[in-house]
Design brief:
Layout (H helix, E strand, L loop, with lengths): L27 E4 L5 E3 L2 E3 L7 E4 L19 E2 L2 E3 L2 E3 L5 E7 L6 E2 L2 E3 L2 E3 L17 E7 L5 E3 L2 E3 L2 E3 L6 E5 L5 E8 L2 E3 L22 E7 L10 E8 L2 E3 L3 E6 L1 E2 L2 E3 L2 E2 L3 E5 L6
Parallel strand pairs: 1-4, 2-6, 3-7, 4-8, 5-9, 6-10, 7-11, 8-12, 9-13, 10-14, 11-15, 12-16, 13-17, 14-17, 15-18, 16-19, 17-20, 18-21, 19-22, 20-23, 20-24, 21-25, 22-26
Length: 274
């Protein structure tokens, strides 16, 4: 699976999205799809926006240009397993995302995948165009979006421009609950663009490279604040990173049996986290 996505149409990571951009312009993208399996694929050199994505559908259809709305459907009981995802440009290796209110993303399993990207060059502030971003992301990206019961288990990640595994509650009213991150091997990762990072709660170049980042973008003026709660981080190995686990604005987080050689096992941001 190579050469897919609509080149030049991926939405930028920040700022107002241009008309016609595609939020999840992946090589393989499931939108508003349930009870489906993406397994045993080789996903490589898709240069639009990364590798594999699972998302809801609705007023924001993340798989279509933003001038078009989809039909409201959540995404439930999907599996992304045993894929080789290597050197996909401009976007993340695997993304589990929710964009709409009332169309939850639930019970998604991400296991046994190998994701290969590229670590940032020393002192690099912004990933250059075409970078192999790598990483696994679980994120709510629109107001009042909801993700629950995601399992990220037994994956191998080698190189990423951003933190290796990210759980990110981005927008007011968002809720991410009951995420399991277990038995993953995560090596040679990066940080968010900066300095400083585009969002103050994210680990930037001054905070250092990060294996796992759990972030709720609390502290903004819009209410209610995004929520990230009941995350279980268990038996992961993190290699060649400054920070093992970065916590920001989180609640009821369990981190245990962290292996590897991070300089700082657990770091809590200025906004707090537990």
């Amino acid at each position: 699976m190579t050469g897919n996505g609509v080149a030049g149409h991926a939405c930028p990571p920040s700022g107002a999205p241009p008309v016609g951009c595609i939020a999840e312009d992946k090589g393989i993208e499931l939108v508003g799809t349930s009870n489906s399996v993406v397994s045993h694929n080789v996903v490589s050199h898709n240069l639009a926006d990364g590798g594999i994505g699972v998302a809801d559908d609705g007023p924001t259809d993340p798989g279509a240009p933003n001038t078009h709305a989809g039909i409201p459907y959540g995404a439930t009981n999907d599996v992304v397993s045993d894929n080789l995802i290597i050197d996909n440009g401009n976007g993340c290796g695997i993304v589990i995302a929710a964009y709409n209110q009332g169309t939850p993303v639930e019970n998604i399993q991400v296991f046994g995948n190998t994701i290969i990207g590229a670590a940032p060059a020393p002192g690099q502030f912004f990933p250059p165009p075409g970078s192999y971003i790598g990483q696994i992301v679980v994120a709510t990206d629109g107001p009042f979006a909801d993700i629950s019961n995601t399992q990220v288990v037994g994956n191998n990640l080698d190189g990423s421009e951003l933190p290796g595994i990210v759980v990110h509650s981005n927008v007011f009213g968002d809720i991410i609950t009951n995420t399991l991150i277990q038995d993953n091997v995560i090596a040679d990762n990066g940080y968010y663009p900066g300095p400083p990072a585009i969002k103050p709660n994210d680990p930037g170049v001054s905070q250092g490279t990060t294996g796992i980042a759990l972030i709720a973008e609390v502290g903004g003026t819009d209410t209610p604040s995004p929520v990230l709660t009941n995350t279980n981080v268990s038996s992961n190995t993190i290699l060649n990173d400054t920070n093992g686990v970065w916590l920001c604005g989180t609640y009821h987080t369990s981190v245990h049996q962290l292996h590897g050689n991070p300089t700082n096992s657990i770091v809590v941001c200025n906004a707090g986290g537990n």
